[in-house]
Automatic annotation (TrEMBL):
SUPFAM superfamilies in UniProt: P-loop containing nucleoside triphosphate hydrolases
Gene3D superfamilies: P-loop containing nucleotide triphosphate hydrolases
Listed PANTHER family: ABC TRANSPORTER ATP-BINDING PROTEIN (PTHR42711), ABC TRANSPORTER ATP-BINDING PROTEIN NATA (PTHR42711:SF5)
Keyword presence, Transport: yes
Protein's UniProt name: ATP-binding cassette domain-containing protein
Location of the ABC transporter domain: 5-232
Lineage of source species: Bacteria, Pseudomonadati, Pseudomonadota, Alphaproteobacteria, Caulobacterales
InterPro entries reported in the protein's UniProt record: AAA+_ATPase (IPR003593), ABC_transporter-like_ATP-bd (IPR003439), ABC_transporter-like_CS (IPR017871), ABC_transporter_ATP-binding (IPR050763), DrrA1/2-like_C (IPR025302), P-loop_NTPase (IPR027417)
Span list, region Disordered: 298-321
Keywords from the named record: ATP-binding, Nodulation, Nucleotide-binding, Transport
Amino acid sequence: MTAALTLDGISKRYGDFQAVRDLSFSVAKGSICGFLGPNGAGKTSTLRMILGLQPQTSGTISILGSSDGRRVRDRIGFLPEERGLYKKMTPVDAIAFFGALKGLPMSEGKRRARRMLEEQGLGAAQSKKMKELSKGMAQKVQLIASVVHGPEFVILDEPFSGLDPMNQQGLEQMIRGLAADGATVLFSTHVMQHAERLCDTVVLLARGRKAFEGTVDQAKATSRRFLEVEGAIDPTAVAALPGVVSVETISDREGVRALKAALAPDAGGQEALKAAFLTGLDVRRFALKEPTLHDAFIGLTGDNPDQDQSVRPATPTEAAR
Ligand SMILES: Nc1ncnc2c1ncn2[C@@H]1O[C@H](COP(=O)(O)OP(=O)(O)OP(=O)(O)O)[C@@H](O)[C@H]1O
């Protein structure tokens, strides 16, 4: 594989706090890579180091053949986590302005902006002001602004946050389109479902450390298939079923429980179902489930991707304690 990006032993300290630890991974040219982890895991810090917006404490980075992202900035597109385009500009002017910052002539930027807005179903919004657009529309405009110059490498920080499912789908299509046109895409998210649908590879990050790098299928293969069982059943009775290695109680309403039972790698679930009926368990629902990327993340890191891991600076009173 030809790598468009390689990180080797990257660490980042903010004062006494180690936000990123000995992080190494590669992204193949032309692929879509998901950089996944809870809020505060160290994703934005890493993306900023890749872009050369802040220095690493140690380690080396190679992006598009350069050890400094700033030297290849015109070949990179970046959608930051904090968004905002000039409210009084029209989308066409805003997109062309961002293109011009990367060396694209204004007239060409406007031409491309009109075409790309049309392609994204935003033709009618072209002459409105940015402040008149919905959040979903504005986010699409901002993504277009970050890629209008035709970058080889696109870095998107939490591009799906704050979008409704419809707009999330539209954004997924845009990202697929960028890769289909030959760009390499690296995007961060704490929502595993997007990565599951989009990515060639994923890098899982928890508390500043890499927990996994590989394909989505490889990540899922680290986790077990499981059974969802519901009824007036004791968890110990489910734990005794053939093939079941552990049981977790998801909910318990006066003894009617929803249980999640992890299966041994070679267990199919049918044996457990048969045994459940033969022993007369009160099974009201029984389903065999494949692990999701979310399950794999929890299995690999012991952390829930939905939980914030940010370490906030101590308030003066906390610090005095
Ligand atoms: N400039 C800074 N000074 C001190 N601590 C920082 C700084 N920037 C980030 N941190 C801390 O480093 C940790 C990682 O933050 P980072 O923003 O990289 O995580 P993240 O995974 O991108 O999360 P989020 O999606 O919430 O931004 C957090 O605990 C954060 O509070």
